[in-house]
Amino acid sequence: MTGCRDVTDSGLRHLRSLDNLNRLELSFTGITDRGIDSLAELTSLEDLNLQGTHVHGPGLAELGAMGKLRILLRVRGIWRSLGPLGLVQLVRYWISQ
User: Fold this and answer.
1) CA 8, 11, 13, 16 torsion: positive or negative?
2) pLDDT tens digits for 7-45?
3) pTM listed for this prediction
4) Using alpha carbons only, what angle is made at residue 93 by residues 48 and 28, rounded to the nearest 5 degrees?
């Protein structure tokens, strides 16, 4: 779904039934922090690319509870793959700023 700005928060709810989904490419879509709660039910999700979205601290904090999840982000021009602990640390950093 890369680059499809028509993919929005309300559209993410349609993914809830995809129990075996383990990789989701959402880079440069129209999603925000408000849509992230729809992904919480995707318990098999392991890889999630959120580059170029409007998902920031609050949405990332919600994803931190998903144990298998690694999130791929571009931070200051460098690709980072974050597991749950790295995600928590990143959110704490953003909140403290």
Assistant:
1) negative
2) 889 999 898 889 899 989 888 889 888 888 888 788 888
3) 0.70
4) 30
